[in-house]
Write a structure and sequence with these properties.
Oligomer: heterodimer
Number of strands of chain A: 12
CATH architecture of the largest domain in chain A: 3-Layer(aba) Sandwich
Strand content of chain B: under 5%
Number of domains of chain A: 2
CATH superfamily of the largest domain in chain A: P-loop containing nucleotide triphosphate hydrolases
Order of helices and strands of chain A: EEEHEEEEHEHHHHEHEHEEH
Strand order of the largest sheet of chain A: 8-9-10-3-11-12
Distance between the termini of chain A: 13 Å
CATH architecture of one domain in chain B: Orthogonal Bundle
Structural class of chain A: alpha/beta
Helix content of chain B: over 70%
Number of helices of chain A: 9
CATH topology of one domain in chain B: MetI-like fold
Shape of chain A: globular
Largest interface: A-B, 21 and 21 residues
Radius of gyration of chain B: 23 Å
Order of helices and strands of chain B: HHHHHHHHHHH
Radius of gyration of chain A: 19 Å
C-alpha cells in the first residue's frame, strides 16, 4: 500500500465545468466550530474554505465524526459556526450566533429521515414550506402537483406518508425541499436509510432532478461511490479537527448512467478516495 | 374480495351470537341451580323489568341528570387537563417542582373524597360534576403532557429549517402530533368520568341512575337493579363511542385509527 499522503487541493479544476463567471452560490470562509462542555473543548471543524458555483453538485465525504453533518447543519442555519463566514450569493447566513431568516428561507434541506408529517397528504407535505410562507391554496396545489411529477410520484398526491415506501417518502422530502425553488439544496445522507437497490435508483433520480432544476447541491454521504457518482466535485473531510483534506473534480459527462461506475477511470477515483479515507485509520 | 367482505361482516354476526349464548347460559344457570330471583333474576325477567323501567318517564330524567353530570365533568377535565398538560409538558421546571404534588394527588383514592364534596357542595349535581371532572382530569392531563414531549426531533428540525414561527410550529406540528395522546387520554377520561358520577350518586343525593341503583337495591328489586345497570352500560357505551368517533374524525391518519380499519378489512 502506498504510504505517501499528499495534501492536494484541486479546487480550481471545478471551475472548468462552470464556464460563466457567475457569482459564487455558496462561499465558506474559515469556518470553524468548537463544542464546549464544562471541562473540554472539542474542535469539530477548523479552517474550512470552499466556494461552490451555480448549479454545481458537491459531495462531502468523510468518516463518521469528521464533522460533515456539523458543517451541513451550519449551512442549513441549524447550528451557528464558532468562526468564519458563510455567504449565500454574497449574503451572510449568520450574524454571530443569530441566523438571518431571509437567507435561511432560500435553502432547501433534506435529512437522513424523510421526517414527513403523517397528518398531511403527500401534496400537503410537499407544499408545507409554501404554506408557511403564505402562498395561496391554488398556487400550492399546482406546485405540489408539478413537484410530485418531477420526483416520480405522480398519482400519489392524495396518499398519506404511511402508504409510501422508504424511497418514496424520501422523494417527498426532496420535493418538499425543492418547493420553494431554493438557491441551495442541502442533503444530509438522504439515502443512508435505504436499501442498496433503492439507493442506486434514487441516485439516478436525484441526478435527473438536479439537472432538470439546475439546483446547486451540497450532498453529505459516507458512501464513496455515491459521492463520486453524483458529484461535480468531491470534498474529503478528515476528522479531529474536521478539515478539508482534498477536493476532487469528477469530470464524467452528464447525465451519468449507472454503468459509469464500471469504467476504469471511475474505479480509480473511488480507489484513491478509499485509500485516503483508510489512511486516517 | 369475498374473503375481505366476510371478514368485515364477521363482528356483525359473531357479536349477536355471543350475546345469545351468554343469555342462554345465564338462563340455564338460573334454572338448573334454582337461584333465587333476589340474587340473580333470569334474563327474561330482567328484560321485562327493563321495559318497565324504560317506559317510566322519571327514568329518563334520572338518565339525563347522570349524562349531564358526566359530560359536564368530562368537559371541565378536558379543558383543564389539556391546559395543565400543555403547560407542564412545556415548562420542565414547573413540572419538576409540582411532581410530588401530582403524584400525591394521584395516589389519593379520590372516590373517598366524595363525602367531603357532599359537605362542601351539597347533594345536588355540583358535587358529582366535580367528582367526575377530578377522575377524568388525570389521565387526560398525563397523556397531554406526554404528547407535548413526544414531538419528534427530526420533525422539529424540519420546521426549524423552514424558518417556521413558534405559532406555525405549534399549529402544524405540536398540535397535530399531540392529538393522538389527547384522544388516548379522552378515551380513558370519559370512562373515569362516568365512574366518578355514578359513585357520587351512590353516596349522596336523590337524582341520577346511580341513585336509582341504590333505590332499587333498597327495595330489593333485583330485576330493576339489573335493568338500571344495563341502562348505565348503554349510557357509558354511547359516551365512549362519541369520543371514539371524534377521534376517528380528527386523527384519521393515526395508526390507532387506520390500523383498526386494516384489521376489519
Amino acid at each position: 500500500m502506498p504510504a505517501h499522503s499528499t495534501e492536494t487541493l484541486e479546487q480550481d479544476k471545478g471551475a472548468q465545468r462552470a464556464p460563466r463567471p457567475a457569482p459564487a452560490k455558496l462561499e465558506l470562509a474559515g469556518i470553524g466550530k468548537e463544542f464546549r462542555t464544562k471541562r473540554t473543548v472539542t474542535q469539530a471543524l477548523s479552517g474550512i474554505d470552499l466556494t461552490i458555483g451555480d448549479g454545481e453538485f458537491v459531495s462531502l465525504i468523510g468518516r463518521s465524526g469528521c464533522g460533515k453533518t456539523t458543517l451541513l447543519r451550519m449551512l442549513a442555519g441549524l447550528l451557528s459556526p464558532s468562526s468564519g463566514q458563510i455567504l449565500v450569493e454574497g449574503r451572510s447566513l449568520w450574524n454571530g450566533a443569530k441566523v438571518d431568516s431571509s437567507v435561511v428561507s432560500q435553502l432547501g434541506v433534506v435529512f437522513q429521515e424523510a421526517n414527513l408529517f403523517p397528518w398531511y397528504s403527500v401534496a400537503d407535505n410537499i407544499s408545507l414550506p409554501l404554506r408557511l410562507r403564505g402562498d395561496g391554496k391554488e398556487e400550492r396545489r399546482e406546485r405540489a402537483h408539478e413537484l410530485a411529477e418531477l420526483v416520480g410520484l405522480k398519482g400519489f398526491e392524495n396518499s398519506y406518508p404511511r402508504e409510501l415506501s422508504g424511497g418514496m417518502r424520501q422523494r417527498v422530502a426532496i420535493a418538499r425541499a425543492l418547493s420553494i425553488r431554493p438557491k441551495l439544496l442541502l442533503m444530509d445522507e438522504p439515502f443512508g436509510a435505504l436499501d442498496a437497490l433503492t439507493r442506486e435508483r434514487m441516485n439516478l433520480e436525484l441526478q435527473r432532478i438536479a439537472l432538470a432544476t439546475n439546483a446547486t447541491v451540497v450532498f453529505v454521504t459516507h458512501d464513496i461511490t455515491e459521492a463520486v457518482f453524483l458529484g461535480d466535485r468531491v470534498v474529503h473531510l478528515t476528522p479531529r479537527p474536521g478539515r478539508i483534506r482534498q477536493v476532487r473534480s469528477i469530470d464524467f459527462d452528464r447525465p451519468r448512467s449507472i454503468d459509469v461506475q464500471t469504467e476504469p477511470a471511475f474505479g480509480a477515483i473511488v480507489r484513491d478516495l478509499r485509500h485516503a479515507l483508510d489512511e486516517e485509520g | 374480495m369475498n374473503r375481505e367482505r366476510s371478514k368485515r361482516l364477521l363482528p356483525w354476526i359473531s357479536t349477536p351470537l355471543i350475546l345469545i349464548a351468554f343469555f342462554v347460559a345465564w338462563d340455564l344457570f338460573v334454572r338448573i341451580n334454582d337461584v333465587s330471583e333476589l340474587v340473580l333474576p333470569p334474563p327474561l325477567t330482567v328484560f321485562e323489568s327493563l321495559v318497565e323501567v324504560v317506559t317510566e318517564a322519571s327514568t329518563w330524567e334520572h338518565a339525563l341528570v347522570t349524562a349531564t353530570e358526566t359530560i359536564g365533568g368530562f368537559l371541565i377535565a378536558l379543558v383543564s387537563g389539556v391546559a395543565v398538560g400543555v403547560v407542564l409538558g412545556k415548562v420542565a421546571w414547573l413540572e419538576n417542582s409540582l411532581r410530588p404534588l401530582i403524584v400525591a394527588s394521584q395516589v389519593v383514592p379520590k372516590v373517598a373524597l366524595i363525602p367531603l364534596f357532599v359537605i362542601w357542595f351539597g347533594f345536588g349535581m355540583t358535587s358529582k360534576v366535580i367528582m367526575s371532572a377530578m377522575l377524568a382530569f388525570f389521565p387526560i392531563m398525563l397523556n397531554v403532557q406526554l404528547g407535548v414531549r413526544s414531538v419528534e426531533a427530526g420533525q422539529r428540525e424540519v420546521m426549524r429549517s423552514l424558518n417556521a414561527s413558534r405559532w406555525q410550529t405549534f399549529l402544524h406540528l405540536e398540535l397535530k402530533s399531540t392529538m393522538p395522546y389527547v384522544f388516548a387520554g379522552l378515551e380513558v377520561g370519559i370512562v373515569f368520568a362516568i365512574i366518578g358520577t355514578i359513585v357520587g350518586e351512590y353516596l349522596g343525593g336523590s337524582e341520577g341512575l346511580g341513585y336509582l341503583v341504590v333505590r332499587t337495591l333498597n327495595e330489593l328489586d333485583a330485576p330493576a337493579l339489573f335493568a338500571v345497570i344495563i341502562l348505565l352500560s348503554v349510557l357509558g357505551l354511547l359516551l365512549y363511542f362519541v369520543v371514539h368517533g371524534l377521534k376517528r374524525f380528527f386523527i384519521p391518519w393515526h395508526e390507532s385509527v387506520y390500523g383498526q380499519q386494516d384489521v376489519n378489512r
